[in-house]
Amino acid sequence: MERKVSLKDIAQKVGVSTALVSYVLNNKRENRVSKELAQRIREVAAGMNYRINQVARSLKTNKTFTIGLIVSDIANPFFSALARIIEDEAEQHQYTVIFSSSDENAAKNGKLIDTLLDRQVDGLILSPPAFCEDQVIRLQQQQVPFVLVDRYFPDLKTNYVALDNYGAAFKAVEHLIESGCKRIGMLTYDTELFHLQERKRGYVAALKQHKLPATKSLLKEVNIRVEQPAIEKAIHQLLSGPEPVDGLLFAANNLALAGLRYIRTLPVHIPRDLRIVNFDETEALDFYPAPFAYIQQPLGELGRLATRLLLESINQRPATTQINLDGQLVLKSPMPF
Amino acid sequence: MERKVSLKDIAQKVGVSTALVSYVLNNKRENRVSKELAQRIREVAAGMNYRINQVARSLKTNKTFTIGLIVSDIANPFFSALARIIEDEAEQHQYTVIFSSSDENAAKNGKLIDTLLDRQVDGLILSPPAFCEDQVIRLQQQQVPFVLVDRYFPDLKTNYVALDNYGAAFKAVEHLIESGCKRIGMLTYDTELFHLQERKRGYVAALKQHKLPATKSLLKEVNIRVEQPAIEKAIHQLLSGPEPVDGLLFAANNLALAGLRYIRTLPVHIPRDLRIVNFDETEALDFYPAPFAYIQQPLGELGRLATRLLLESINQRPATTQINLDGQLVLKSPMPF
DNA sequence: TTAAGTCGGTTAAACGTTTAACCAAATATT
DNA sequence: AATATTTGGTTAAACGTTTAACCGACTTAA
Predict the structure, then answer these.
(1) B285 and B177, same structural domain?
(2) How close is the nearest chain B Cα to the Cα of A91, in Å?
């Protein structure tokens, strides 16, 4: 790249100091500089196609107007939709966003945080994998502005914006109960991730409150990395035996996708034999040939609130804010309607 | 954020010059510095949790190790998948990526380019909207390293990595012909976007080569912003009248989605009455209850090649490289298999 | 008449790195 | 013994901004 035009170049051409050029171009000290000269400087700047060097400015001002976003996988529609919302909200405030994917890997997450901080981002939006408490605590110690989104750690007093996962799961199970289900199973990941723990807790609580069985055999947990075979096995177990489940809650959209794909091949009729509730909307089920319900996350609010919270946190340093949004239960009939 | 540890702090603690600390931490002039002192410096740096200030380094070295990515919408699964691949490839080379969404809007695209350049990105990966030739030309003049991906401008001699859209459409139509279709329609966007023009060209060429009708009434174009109603109308026209189409090519995944959604409500049997080919894989059709074919883009290669090309372009300045990859025709039966 | 503002700028330091150029002391070469 | 080279560092400038502090020339007010 050819060398770019700098303040100094403009200053030389106009015959003033670089300081003055800086003042004019930043509209500072407007009263202290003559209209004509200001005009002249602006013209020359435009004429030379001047563009500020943000890196230099950042070094001086200690502000990059950049936020770092770390999600588990930007290719996951949930996170890319979230990213888009964050991008828009950030853009409105002249912020730019750097993203990276942690792959649910704590070590990688740590490296990404470091990389972003090395680049002097003004703050972070994180959807942390399990076992990252220490990293988050370090951020607090270093007083880095950040907000967790979607995931958070119950023991840590941090900013976060997330779903009320307990309540959403509770609501989901109640829906199944109201629909007449007596034996309600759940398929979730075998993970420490707090939001999934909460969903489990909500599931169990709803069953207990309605005096329905909440045994170990109704709750299946599969490893977050392994996929189809383990899922099929778990579902098979839930649906076989003397007392098969007549209601099933999937704790995550990937699980629902794999699970429903399998169930489709079984001689099980939905909703006669089995009713389903998923977490998260997923396009992939748009044409699923049976009705089911799902918990819809308020994605827009999640992203917008997280971003605003972060910007506030960067510009002032207010009390930490913790937000749990309600999920909405949506019923979906097979298309066409 | 508390003030961070700088080279100077380390230098002071060890009792050497900042230059030496810089040399040691960057492993430069290794022979010119004593083992013990180097060791000491490293220890102190680690002990103080030193982290380099990339902004300062960038100012000095004129290199940010950052690339800018502009797509039309990061929430679009096609682009988020691409973004993920680019991220991974970039990360392997210590690069970080800033993304933004242009919304197919040329003016916005221009602003985004400027913002990214202000931030001194080392290069750009762009999937430009229509009417951006001027912006691309400016990039060339300014000698900014960049590569276009997915989209490109036929008249501009720029780096790009894209599908052979002509060939892919040709292949798609030939598939329909081989399957026995006699009247093959196409639904596309009414746009200047070159890649869509190419798909149209491939469609027409295949029909002509096989002596099939390629009339205006078989080719429907809808505005890229308007959606469902216009699409339904177009499809209705194609399927009604004395000679309805028996084969249909959708030029983009959004069109296919909307179109198939509508077709599903019609008394038209797929594939008996109508055979379908789409562009791009889309999860949303995973459970579509009828068979269809689609052109699968080699997303991984697209992303990887684009990134590598850009990095080469940043580090050396080679001849411009233009790559057209082949799409693959994939047949899809309704699930379960 | 003098002190105090105001006007319209300039000077210079600083942000945290990198890196070419320099230097003194020790060692090697003739 | 005189000269050259190596060793192990230091100095200082530079990257492109921002911004507090300063300054001389006018104006205004007492």
Answers:
(1) yes
(2) 9
Give the residue from B301, B267, B241 showing the smallest Cα distance to B85. Answer: B301
pLDDT beyond 60 at A26 = yes
Q: Which nucleotide is nearest to A4 (CA to C1')?
A: D16
- How many C-beta neighbours within 10 Å does residue A16 have? 18
- CB distance A118–B91 less than 8 Å? no
Q: Which domain holds residue B257?
A: 165-297
What is the maximum span of chain B, computed from C-alpha positions, in angstroms? Answer: 92
Pick out residues 270-329 of chain A having their CB under 7 A from any atom of nucleic acid strand C. none
CATH of the domain at A42: 1.10.260
Is A86 strand, coil or helix?
helix
Helix, strand, coil fractions of chain A, as percent rounded to 5:
45, 15, 35
Chain-chain contact of A286 with B282 (C-beta, under 8 angstroms): no
CB B120 within 8 A of CB B141: no
Residue B145 and residue A80: Cβ atoms within 8 Å?
Answer: no
CATH of the domain at B237: 3.40.50.2300
Give, for B279, the enclosing helix (H) or strand (E): strand B275-279
Same domain, A100 and A149: yes
Positive or negative torsion for Cα A13, A14, A20, A24: negative
Residues from chain A that touch B45, judged by Cβ atoms under 8 A, are: none
Same domain, B291 and B198: yes
Contacts A145 to B, Cβ<8 Å: 1
Q: Would A329 be classed as within a structural domain?
A: no
Instruction: Kindly state the DSSP code that residue B225 receives in the 8-state scheme.
Output: S
Q: Give tens-digit pLDDT for B166-212.
A: 999 999 999 999 999 999 999 999 998 999 999 999 999 999 999 99
Nearest by CB to residue A55, choosing from B55, B79, B83, is B55
In the predicted structure, residue A72 carries a pLDDT above the cut 80:
yes
Q: How many separate domains does chain B show?
A: 3
Nearest CA in chain B to A69: B98
> Does any domain span residue B335?
no
The whole-angstrom distance between residue B104's C-alpha and the CA centroid of its chain comes to 13
The string of pLDDT tens digits covering residues A92-143 is 999 999 999 999 999 999 999 999 999 999 999 999 999 999 999 999 999 9
User: How many angstroms separate the CA of A316 from the C1' of D19?
Assistant: 22
> Which residues of chain B does A81 touch, with a Cβ-Cβ cutoff of 8 Å?
75
- B131 φ/ψ sector (left φ>0, alpha ψ -120 to 50, else beta): left
One domain, residues A182 and A288: yes
User: In terms of CA atoms, which chain B residue is nearest residue A260?
Assistant: B287
CB-based contact B55 A114, cutoff 8 Å: no
Q: Is B330 domain-assigned?
A: no
